[in-house]
Amino acid sequence: MADLIGGIVPYGVGVALSPLPVIATVLLLMAPAGTRGAAAFLVARIVGLAALVAVATVVIELIDSGFGSTFPAAIVQLLVGAVLVVVAVLKWRSRPRGDAEPELPGWMRSIESASAGKAFVMGLLLTIANLKEIGFAAGAGLAIGSADVGVGGSLVAGIVFVVLAVAGSALPTVAALILGPRIAQTLTETRTWLVRNQQMLIAIVLLIIGALLIGAGIAEF
């Protein structure tokens, strides 16, 4: 069980370090919806990530049982890892150069006026329709589904992954609830830095997780 938890920690941390959910949370906290919007976004992230890792776990268990081998799961790990590495390279090449100011995607601009309900929908879509989130959840699901820890152990491992994964959105939300208006300046500075460096951060996180998946896949042969 300890080995399993250690194996899924990098995937959970990878999701937590992904800048887009953090940027969205900061934008919501600065918007009229405030902490209500950020809390709705966080709940949606929890639901989405739990669903993704549960599906990935079940699929891997079915594959292993059907083939009587971990070989197919290893192939999936290699493929997902390779895709993440390729996306990481593309993100790195598209990062802003010099003093160029990156343009916010349309959904980020619209989130500043989003209600709590719209924030929930955005949080869900940003999770379940996002290649990076799917890749991270797949990595955790691969680890859980390939481990012989029973239903209880799988549930605990899944909870650990989700708790770690939502930390990036949870921390600014909790800080805003505790500190209130005093955190406004910090949120503004955080937003500016994350927007400017998001492509670089995404590339680094994807490269690390992609390499971990490829290594895990090779180890199965």
- From N to C, what is the helix and strand string? HHHHHHHHHH
The main β sheet shows up as: none
* Amount of helix: over 70%
Low-confidence sequence ranges: none
Query: From the alpha-carbon coordinates, what is the Rg to the nearest angstrom?
Result: 18 Å
Q: What kind of oligomer do you see?
A: single chain
Instruction: Report the total helices.
Output: 10
Task: Characterise the protein shown here.
By secondary structure, the protein is mainly alpha-helical. The protein has one domain. The chain has 10 helices and no strands. The longest helix is centred in the last third of the chain and has 36 residues, at 184-219. It is globular, with a radius of gyration of 18 Å. The two termini are 22 Å apart.
